[in-house]
Amino acid sequence: MARINLFHSVFGRVTLSALLVSLLSTLALFLVVEKIVVDDGRARLAREVDTDLAGLADIYVSGGDTELRARIADRLSVEQQDGEQGWYLLADAQGRRIAGNLDRWPKLSAHVSEARFVTLPDGQRMFARATRLGPSAQLLVGRSDMRGQALLARLAMAFAVAGALIALFSLLAGHFAARRLRVRVEAVNATFAAVRAGRIAARAPGAGTSDELAELAANTNAMLDQVERLIEAQRAVSDQTAHEIRTPLMHLDTRILKAMEGTQDSTLLRTLDQSRGEIRGVVRLLDSLLDIAGTQALRGDLRGLAEVDLSDIAETLADLYGASAEELGIGFHARITPGVMLRADPMQMMRLMSNLLDNAFKYVPSGGSVALILSPGPRIIVQDDGPGIPSADRTRIFERYVRLDVGSGGGHGLGLALARAIAQRHELSLHVEDAAPGARFVVQLEDLAAGGSG
């Protein structure tokens, strides 16, 4: 099974989506909690500051400026038990310091009793409120936010740890869930691969359960059942058609032969013999069409195939065509590598090579040459030095009834179509190249042809 890229896999994206959702959910929850904590801390600081500020304002009203400075000094001398730090500044109307532990008046308006967080020159953060005590005095009271900042830091650490654990659990759960789904989908894919490899009876597992993948498996099996029925029906129709048409033609040929035996009329004998030739031509045409249709129907079906020594087949054909070539005055050369094996139908592979050789011998004039080359791969080459094939016709010649020598008579233009159908059934490619001069027919594995080999 090929290694699946995480981002290109549906299951990988589901796992990453689960991880992303868990992280975003954790982040959203942290932001909500942070907002609550910040608002609550601000409200707490505001109450403390407002209470202290109100008390100091009462002291100013009752005791005056001197008493207020004494009380501010008392507050500064007392260490806060909760670790918070208090900030005080009593200033005149121009903001000049009279008492307190702040050197300068921050950007807070005492006229409107403004309250907010302020960052001090040393980087500390405090919540402060400013108010006017009279025409010549204004007071600021502030509290540091150490507790709030420490709480936020602890919350951030807690959510970071929790988020990491949630992400890990989400990733693990998503991985195992996606892995289980992937195993079930791969089982369906493996079924299609098995059917494509020729095991037409293969079926997808898991069709008995009650989820969407079970429905997919059930539909897959139903489709494969229908495909198998169609293939069997096509075979049955082909066989029946061949029998129903071939039988009466052979009977007709027999009756013509008997009629020829019962007459001495030379003209009638020539006519009857011509009729017998036409009948045999129709039978050959029918056989070729049925062979092409049957072979195309078996494409990818490995039933009935076995390991075949192509070298033995090629050697046999080389002996047969070598003798014919000598009689025709054509040079024939065979370069056959021993032990070239292929899972194939031996009769069909012999038919493929013989059709290519017949085509080569048909177009090579006396004095020309034909070569049969078999090399590992397998790679089969039939090459001639005849007139060649125009580039515009190099794909068209593999179609049914296509003949480039219409005026020469004989043949139905089905030999190369059958050769290609046989090649495709065995997962081979067949194409023609310019041999300069002549034509070169090449048979090789489909993946090598797709990769540009040739």
From TrEMBL:
The keyword Transmembrane is assigned to this record: yes
Compartment(s) of residence: Membrane
InterPro entries: HAMP_dom, HATPase_C_sf, HATPase_dom, His_kinase_dom, HisK_dim/P_sf, Sig_transdc_His_kin-like_C, TCS_sensor_his_kinase
Keyword Protein biosynthesis: no
Stored PANTHER family: HISTIDINE KINASE, SENSOR HISTIDINE KINASE YKOH
Gene3D superfamilies xrefs: 1.10.287.130, Histidine kinase-like ATPase, C-terminal domain
Coarse class of the protein's main subcellular location: membrane
Keyword terms: Kinase, Membrane, Phosphoprotein, Transferase, Transmembrane, Transmembrane helix, Two-component regulatory system
The organism's place on the tree of life at top rank: Bacteria
Protein name (record): histidine kinase
Domain Histidine kinase: 240-449
Top EC class for this record: transferase
EC number: 2.7.13.3
GO terms of molecular function: phosphorelay sensor kinase activity
Annotated Pfam families: HATPase_c (PF02518)
TM regions (residue ranges): 16-38, 151-173
Reaction equation(s) it catalyzes: ATP + protein L-histidine = ADP + protein N-phospho-L-histidine
SMART domains, per database record: HAMP (SM00304), HATPase_c (SM00387)
Domain HAMP: from-to ranges: 179-232
Cellular component, GO, one term: plasma membrane
